Amino acid sequence: MKKFFAELIGTAVLVFMGCGTAMLVGCGYGADEGTGYLIVALAFGLSIVAMAYCIGNISGCHVNPAVSLAVWLSGGMKLVEMFYYMAAQVIGAILGAGALKFVFHFMSKPDMTSPDGALMGFGSNGLPEASTTGDAIIAALLVEAALTFIFVIAILGVTSEKFKHGSFGGLIIGLTLTFVHIFGIAVTGTSVNPARSIGPALMALISGNKGPIGVVWVFIVAPLFGAVIATCVYKFLETQKAKKEESAE
């Protein structure tokens, strides 16, 4: 239960701080809006840094179903435990988004991620601009899978007991999340985390904005697929390195 609540709290903080910052400053990436763009990327990354040193020793600070899937595939946790983690992460994301709904209800500031100024966006993810809906979906799937691949393979490398990165692990993971956000915000708003997408999308739906929930499947499928590929590639590279070391001996 301690791990469950740790993951719930960690994901709630990620959504509250990351999506909340996006709601306050917007995600513009033009020449005149670049500051907000970078602030949002840093908000997500620094949330992970803070939580890694807060709950890392309790649950490992996955706060992301894609990460939990990768850890399970790597043999780091049991299947039942993985589902407990995922449930905690989704619930935490919903609570984080719910907290934002209350906060913005009592503030006079508008939601800068709102599609038209009237409907709440809650920092939810969306499809990139493209000539057709099909093209936008394909682009979003490719980008989210690629960014999740980068994020997850970095996590697997930095948390490997063989390399002993020690206390720098949380910082490296947080900076990597910032890194992938810098590219992805302009395309999809950057998910690489199904829970992070589900929470804001559900809260947007409750607030009358049906757009995010209609495409949320993209931000579930692509990150999970990216995590699977990252795990397979990392295990292959790790195995090949081990074989070379054995042959050298």
Question: Characteristics of this structure?
Answer:
9 helices, 249 residues, 71% helix, mainly alpha
Q: How would you describe this protein?
A:
- α4 packs across α7 and α5 packs parallel to α9 (218-248).
- 48% of the residues are buried.
- By secondary structure, the chain is mainly α.
- It is globular and about 55 Å long.
- The chain contains nine helices and no strands.
Q: What layout of secondary structure does this protein have?
A:
Elements: H1 2-25, H2 34-59, H3 65-73, H4 79-105, H5 133-158, H6 169-184, H7 194-206, H8 211-215, H9 218-248
Summarize the structure.
Helix content is 71%, strand content 0%. By secondary structure, the chain is an all-alpha fold. The longest helix is centred in the last third of the chain and has 31 residues.
The total strand number stands at 0
Shape assignment: globular
Mean pLDDT equals 89
Percent of residues in helical segments? over 70%
What percentage of the residues does DSSP assign to strands (E)?
Answer: under 5%
Q: Would you tell me the structural class of the helices and strands? A: mainly alpha
